Amino acid sequence: MKCKLIYTFTFTHLLIYIFASFLYPLFEEKEIFANSCGVCSAFSANEESPVAVYYNPAGLFNTPKYAFYFSNTNLYNLPQLANNTFCFSSELKSLGKVGFMYNLFGFELYKENLLNIAYSNSVGEKISFGFSIKSLSVDIKNYGGKSFLSYDFGVLAKPYSNILCSVVVKDIFSAKIAEDEVVNRKLIVGSKIKLLRGVFSYFDFIKSSTESIFARIGEEIKLDLNEYFTGILRFGIETATEFKPARYSFGFGIIYRLSKMDFVFDYAYLTHSVLGEQHLFSLGINIGKKEEVLEEIKIIKQSKRKKTFEVKDEKEVVETKVVRQKEKLPTKPININKATVEEITALPGIGPSTAQKIVEYRQQIGGFTSLEQLLEVPRVGSLTLQRIKPYLVLSDEEDKKKVISEPQKEKEELKTEEKEIEQKPIIEIPPSKQSFTEEKKYNLNKITQDELKSLGFSSLEIKNILRYKERFGKFNSIEELYKIPNIDRKTVDKIKNLLYVE
Q: How far is residue 43's CA from residue 53's CA, in Å, rounded to a whole number?
């Protein structure tokens, strides 16, 4: 019995010595998440997952409204290096985002505990920042334990629509645990570049106070398999240094979308020339969409680019648009519960892919009981529903009672043609000729971030409004605010009389 205890004690301390010397020093960054491991941890510029709390707290700001991620693995398949991690991020309405992470590493005789609390917010519309407070504690059986605090700070900037840059300082104040054991400060400069649709390249350059500069490079490819599933492929490499060899990784992920929730499964495989191989599996749940401007309907951009202020007769433009669309519109109401893809495609603002989604959703729920259910179909927004409602019925009985006349069709088109003519986007009205009430009014195309805040919009809503304006050039009507994701319709209803478009 005594020999067994001596053997166990000697073996475990030998393991601690070996892996502290050649794998990870105390509280060194570990491969604990499958999504980041797939790109060899080149994740400082990632903004889609709550694991940003570990790599760059600034990335939390653009994560989904609520996100959870869990990982359980044995580093390099050694049971003595068990690693369990849980993290999540949450929105704080107009106050930004918070993140939390708990990591337990080790086994009965040696354990490391990491508790990380992070906060993130934005400066303007292209820069976000974040900082985290980490509680680090180590416990060695029969030798006691020690705990201390450490801090990280990170910044994300988007100079161009397809480039994201990051700077992270980890463990700003190098924590001294013992005379010969220090958690070293680390500087990471990285980027995420969108090369093609669904193809992303990650680059991280790392410099710690004890190592020479090395790089991590990763590739990520996202493919929409169908309406519900997205597949992800990942590849990565970490360059060698004087003290450690290069590492290579491969991974894949599956995202299953269900209503407003995404279920995530990730796998990664990591090779090391000395330590062998490692398999990682992680699970995640996202609730609410990522905070970005999504296109609910397709706006005809080419025609908007060609518009000039030289147009004199507003009626001529309207009549031309109506004549062009008359031939395409249905001449009688369509039963939405029996209509074919081709018939639905003839509706204003509906393309072939959206029509296909409507038919698939109809089959899934067994038929529509109200026209408002169309809002549950992807890419069908409130404005689109308003445009197609006059041409739809739910049953053949309604079909007999309802008739769409040509004047009614023309009137409907005039009313719903992106609300452009209502707000006169074609003819610029000089400020001197505008009529104002006693209340101050704001030009939606020139309104500032502070003015939007004074009207009652949250920081997330403000960011979406400014991104929408940046993407589409300008607003042509106040009603376009309703199309922006995560906008509170009640807020818009209250203040839209204080806004105008010029």
A: 11
Residue 364, pLDDT above cutoff 50: yes
Give the pLDDT confidence score for residue 441 in this predicted structure.
84
Determine the structural domain holding residue 136 and report its residue range.
2-290
DSSP bridge pairs for 169 = 153, 187
The DSSP symbol for 26 reads T
Q: Do 311 and 274 share a domain, yes or no?
A: no
- DSSP sequence for 376-428: GSTT--HHHHHHHGGGEESSHHHHHH----HHHHHHHHHHHSTTTTTT--SSP
State the Cα–Cα distance between residues 78 and 76, nearest whole angstrom: 6
Q: Is the pLDDT of residue 386 over 50?
A: yes
Could you give the number of structural domains in the chain?
3
Chain centroid, CA 293 distance in Å: 10
pTM, entire model? 0.54
What percent of the chain stands above pLDDT 70?
74
204: which residues sit within 8 A by CB, 6+ positions away? Answer: 41, 42, 43, 44, 45, 188, 189, 190, 215, 216, 217
Looking at the fold, whether 314 and 436 belong to one and the same domain comes out as no
The Cα-based distances of 417 to 210, 240, 310, 423 in angstroms read 63, 59, 20, 11
For the ranges 241-245, 312-316, 463-467, which has the lowest average pLDDT? 312-316
At 25 the pLDDT is: 47
Domain end marker among 403, 423, 443: 423
Give the pLDDT score at 68.
93
Q: Which residue has the tokens 């480039």?
A: 163
| End-of-domain residue from the set 262, 290, 318 | 290
3-class SS at 75?
helix
